From TrEMBL:
Upper taxonomic lineage: Bacteria, Pseudomonadati, Verrucomicrobiota, Verrucomicrobiia, Verrucomicrobiales
Gene source species: Haloferula luteola
GO cellular component labels: cytosol
Domain Cysteine-rich: 13-92, 142-225
Protein's name in the database: L-lactate dehydrogenase complex protein LldE
InterPro entries associated with the record: Cys_rich_dom
Length: 250
């Protein structure tokens, strides 16, 4: 995955809440804003934002996804960083858009790609925060799931660094950590049985370590894994990584 090496950092950012925040994980968006504001960052939320276009892109309807991408580039125009609490949506802006506009690049699309940050990547590699001055009330074992869309980016290392620096936190290793959870957006709809088996195998490895908390930087993975866990009668507590940072603030 091609990731921009030079992206702007500022004390004012544009915030993209994502479809899953809007529909299911509103507190992940709230936590993102609270953490950024705690760090002295002014957060601007364009109210006419919609989707990053990934569902249409992954389904092969690039005509529709280009339309959505152009809208996002207009909504998040300018030169401020665009912060997203989702490795998947950030990858769509920085990688997927470059693919679908490769034959005919558009300056606004390229600008959006260059300015988009996944939020944990922004905290560590943009703002230079290497440790998190927070604490759990009691020892807490965290299983951190690295989503496929963050491969080739620095989100995973950023999340691991921040989570492991929290007092009373232990980030535990588990088998086949780099394997996909099976969600894959529209993949889980097109191939539900394969998706379910992949997720169940992932859960087997995670739950074998008896974590207190399942954490990821992608809500889609959390939705898939915890939905399977509930259905199978082995629920696990879960949070987006940014919620953990917010909730452990000293």
């Amino acid at each position: 995955m091609s990731v921009p090496l030079q992206r702007p950092v500022a004390n004012k950012v544009l915030f993209m809440a994502t479809c899953l925040c809007d529909a299911f994980y509103d507190d992940a968006a709230r936590a993102s804003v609270e953490v950024l504001e705690h760090l002295g960052i002014e957060v601007i939320f364009p109210e006419n934002q919609t989707c990053c276009g990934q569902p249409a892109f992954n389904s092969g309807d690039w005509k529709a996804s280009r339309k959505v991408a152009r809208h996002a580039a207009e909504v998040f125009g300018g030169d401020l960083p665009v912060i997203v609490p989702s490795g998947s949506c950030a990858a769509m802006h920085s990688h997927g858009n470059r693919l679908q506009f490769e034959a005919c690049p558009e300056p606004a699309i390229e600008s959006l790609a260059n300015r988009t940050w996944e939020i944990l990547d922004y905290l560590v590699h943009g703002l230079g925060i290497s440790t998190w001055k927070g604490a759990f009330a009691a020892p807490t074992r965290i299983a951190f799931h690295r989503s496929c869309h963050t491969r080739g980016t620095r989100t995973g290392e950023a999340a691991h660094a921040l989570l492991s620096s929290i007092r009373n936190a232990e980030v535990v290793a588990f088998g086949q950590e780099d394997q996909c959870c099976g969600f894959g957006g529209t993949f889980s709809v097109t191939f539900p049985h394969i998706s379910g088996r992949m997720g169940s195998l992932k859960l087997d490895h995670i739950l074998a370590q008896q974590p207190d908390l399942l954490v990821s930087a992608d809500m889609s993975c959390l939705m898939h894994l915890t939905g399977l866990a509930r259905t199978q009668g082995r629920p696990v507590q879960h949070q987006h990584a940014i919620q953990v940072l917010r909730d452990t603030l000293a």
